[in-house]
Design goal:
alpha+beta, binds 2'-deoxyuridine, Cytidine Deaminase, domain 2, binds zinc ion, EC 3.5.4.5, 5-stranded mixed β-sheet, 132 residues
Amino acid sequence: MNQAELIEQAKIAMDKAYVPYSKFKVGAALLTADGKVYHGCNIENAAYSMTNCAERTALFKAVSEGVRNFTVLAVVADTDRPVPPCGACRQVIAELCPKDMKVVLTNLKGDIKELTIEELLPGAFTPEDLHD
Ligand SMILES: O=c1ccn([C@H]2C[C@H](O)[C@@H](CO)O2)c(=O)[nH]1
Ligand SMILES: [Zn+2]
């Protein structure tokens, strides 16, 4: 699957967003080395802080199926600039994805920004920091 196709998958995921409070839909599509795609959307809650972002929804779905061989994560929203993942998602991406994995940020106008998670969250706290 190429990048344009993965972005289309993220848009399909975006349509599923449950956003009665913010009305701000976000979609994510996470590609694995064997070509599987995990969709994620943001899922809000009346207890606002329980909201789960699109990026973490996709990652948690995959990890809950024992899948970790991620190669690209695409994220889309109707933003002026390519949608930047929040700090919480950056931390979770840093934990679960390879340092050099491509994160493709985009918007509905077709602007695209490609970054690695190392660039999105330099010097992240990682599992290695827990060891002696
Ligand atoms: O990268 C982002 C940024 C925001 N949101 C969600 C959280 C909330 O539901 C809404 C507004 O912040 O957008 C995401 O899912 N991903
Ligand atoms: Zn987030």
